[in-house]
C-alpha cells in the first residue's frame, strides 16, 4: 500500500501547483487515496519524512535496492547478505556498479578526512607499487603535507587567544 500511495503522491505533486494537471490528477483519486496522499504530503511538510523517504517507498515496489540498503548490507556481517548483494548485482548491473563506486568513493573520502597522514603513506605506497606517480595523488600528498605543516605552526603558537583564533579560522585542518 505504501508503494501505491508513494506513486500516487509522486503523480499528484510532480505537477505544477494550482495547475489543471494537478487538479486532474487529484480528481482521479478516490477519497481514501486522497486522504493517504495528503497525509503523506503533510508528514513531509511537518518534517517527519523527507522526499528521499518517499522516493524509497516508491522504489520498494520496483524491488530495487536503495543505496542506503546497499550500504547496510555491505557493512553488515550477517549471513546471507553477500548472496543478496550478488543477486542484486546480477539483476541490475549498472545500478550495482554506481552504488559500489559511490560507496568506495565515500569510504575513501572518509578515510582521507579521518587519517590524513596514513592516507599520504597509502598514496605513496600505491604510487611506488605502480612505478609512476599519479599527478592528482601527488597533489593530494603535497596538499596534505602543507596542511600538516600549517597545523603544526598553529599548534606551536604560544599565545592562547591567538592560537584559538587561528584554529577557528582553519577549522577544516583540524577535522571539526
Spatial shape: elongated
- H/E order of the elements? HHHHHHHHHH
Helix content: over 70%
Quote the average pLDDT: 79
Q: What's the tally of helices? A: 10
Strand residue percentage:
under 5%
Largest sheet: none
Spans of at least 5 consecutive residues with low confidence: none
- Number of strand segments: 0
**Radius of gyration over C-alpha positions, nearest whole angstrom:** 25 Å
Pairing-aware structural class of the strands and helices? Answer: mainly alpha
For the record, give the distance between the C-alpha atoms at the N and C termini, rounded to a whole number: 43 Å
State the main characteristics.
76% helix, 176 residues
Describe the structure.
The protein is 76% helix and 0% strand. It is elongated, with a radius of gyration of 25 Å. The chain contains ten helices and no strands. The longest helix has 22 residues, at 93-114. It has helices at 2-13, 20-27, 31-45, 51-60, 67-75, 81-91, 93-114, 116-130, 135-155, 160-169.
